[in-house]
Design a protein that fits this description.
Elements (H helix, E strand, L loop, with lengths): L2 H10 L6 H29 L3 H32 L7 H34 L4 H28 L3 H13 L3
Helix pairs in contact: 2-3, 2-5, 3-4, 4-5
Length: 174
Amino acid sequence: MNEGETSLLQWQNLQSLDLAELIDILKAQHTDFLDSDLPELQELAHLLADRPLERFLENMAEELAIHFRTEEKVVFPVLESMSGQHNALDPALRIASDHMREDHRSHFRHLRVLRAFQEELEQQGARGMRQHLCLRLNDFCNRMQLHATWENRRIFRRPAVTETVARREASGNQ
């Protein structure tokens, strides 16, 4: 099974995963993005002497490292400790979720820039190493998009909205 099929399968099974399982998958992806994908992309950009792309990837790696560290060291542990129960941390968690979703909007903009780099490389004639870089950029963008979407839909969804829906369902008013 290739990465795309694995991602699709995970996406289809997303609703059946409990929070701890989902967080484990997300943390593993964080590691892959920072320790494998981005260094490889930076190296390919360097070898092709594409300094603007290389610098953009360096900056993106720094931003993602901060974002992932915040998720892993602050947000995920708080979510896991709450075990779905509402408590005094709800307002702080709502603010943290809003911040993480805003980060994701910024990441989505960065992915559009990476796709523009990819299109430019393809227009230059994507062969050999350039073709490999285009394929890796495409794969990275697709997986990052899916990753952030998973987080937004399962972890950083608006608690106030979900609480309102739950109250309506519990009272029988739909």
